[in-house]
Every structure is written in structure tokens, then in C-alpha cells.
Amino acid sequence: MEQRTLGRSGVALPVLGFGCGPNAQLMVGSDLELQRKTIAHALDLGVNFFDTASLYGDGRSEMNLGRALRDLGATPIVCTKVLLEPADYADIRAGVLRSVQASLERLQLDSIASVMLHNRVASTRDVHTEGSGVTIGLEDVFGPRGLVEAFDELRREGITATAGFTAFGGEPKAIRELIDSGSFDALNASYNVVNPSALHPVGAHLGEADYEQVIAAATAAGMGVMAIRVLSSGALLSPVPDGKAVRLGAIANEVGESVASLAIRYVLSTSDVTTAIMGISAPQHLDEAADAASRGPLDAASLARIEAIALE
Prior knowledge:
alpha/beta; two-stranded antiparallel sheet; 11 helices; 16% strand
């Protein structure tokens, strides 16, 4: 499995990450044997990066991942996310440290490779954002006893090697301030054929949220990028495809490759993406994703055709 470095951090990640979120169901479910089997298969394939969060299954994802890794005797690369609630506004630093400690206990780990803020950020708390938990304002990030102070402490104490934030659903100008601050190592970005605006400029005709090229900005700032929603939250695999999925399907049929494979390769064709996090629900999904990654970036002609679809 190809490895890429997470920005200036020096942490190497496989180009595919194992997503432990609720959409794929596996890691928030109760089939412990299938969880162990799938995780073991991932490790055999070189997919040794696992992305979870306290929010996923109200902690069940972290507990199930921790149990499976313990049973397998495995020590892979793990990332989890902090979700702050209204009560945490009184002391953001304490809320972050409390959340991370609870996650470590569920994961049965003393430290992890990365901690990410799951909440969306805006200039102030009262700006409406789309996402989990309360809106985190810039004062909550940079002010006394804020997010940066907490993340710096976690790095200093060796609890995490890197720290970052979610860069979609929040206020673009606030996200850019976090990127430009130099205080963060990585970000989560939504990037796919349906909505490529995290990397490419798009017009208002797109009909999707405009993420204003946060991937390019992060790369320029020396940050790593963890791409999510690679299959557009499953839209590209719909049994009744429409729009871009139909046109991508036509190219897939022509070249003898699956839509999912082309979509994964599209995301990994830019070196600005460190890893593509895929929701995994069964071992065969890993095989399909790993096969796509092994094919490498799209050739120039195929990339141009798919980007024409993405940007239309």
C-alpha cells in the first residue's frame, strides 16, 4: 500500500484509511467477529490507518475498534475526533482534554496519531454551520484555554502526534484562518467527483456547497489532507444513478473498471490528498478499494475526462 506523508508532520499514512463511521455500520454494530475479521484483513492489505470518533455510535465505534485491536495484538495508526457540547463553552481546553481522555479509554490506548475537531468552526459561535455539535468560534480556537492550547498540550505530552479539524460545513473564512495560523497539522475535507470544490474552483451552477479550495490552501500551509465522502456518501453507487454518476458509469464501462474504483483513483490522483478515508462494512470492500489504489493515479486523458464531469 502506497504511503504519503501527512503534511509537515512527518507521519506516514497509507493512501487508504479505514473509516469507522456509522454510514458503513460495521464498527457501530454488534458483530464482533466480523469486525475483527475485517480489521485483520485491512492490516494484511497495508490499510493500517483507522479513523473513528466519539460521536460514532455514541462511542461504540471507538470501543469496538479498541477491542478488536487488542484481540489482534495490533498497534496501527488511529485518529479520533473531539465533539464539544454547549457545556464545554465554559472551558474549551478542559472539554477537549476530557473528550480525548474518554476516547483513549474506549480505544484502550495511551496515545494516538491524530486528534481532530469534529465541530464546525465559524468567526463566532452564533454563526449557523452544518455539522455535528455546537459551532466553535475563533475565540474558542485561539483564545485563552481554547482549542489550540489544548491541542498543543496533547502534542507536548505525547498523547497525540498531530491535531487538526473538520474543514467542511463551517464558515469558509474562519476555516481559512485556522489553515493560515500554522497551529494545525491536518484537516478533513469532503472531496469527490460530485463536489470537487475543496480542490478546484467551481461556479454557482454546481448546486453543491462550495468548499473554496481548502485542500490547496492546506497544502500551501504544509498541512496534510484526509479526504472523506470519496463516493459522495454513496451517491455514486446508487442503484438508480443520475447526473454525474451516469456519466462516470459510462466511462467505467468503457475502461472495464468500476465506478467506485474510478472515484477513488480520481481523489488519489492529486498528491495534495494524503489519504482517502473509506467507510468499510465488509472485507470485500477493502479488496475493491485496495485494488483501485494499487492501480495508481488516473492517466492524463482519463483524469481530464473525469474532471470535465466533476466541474460541469
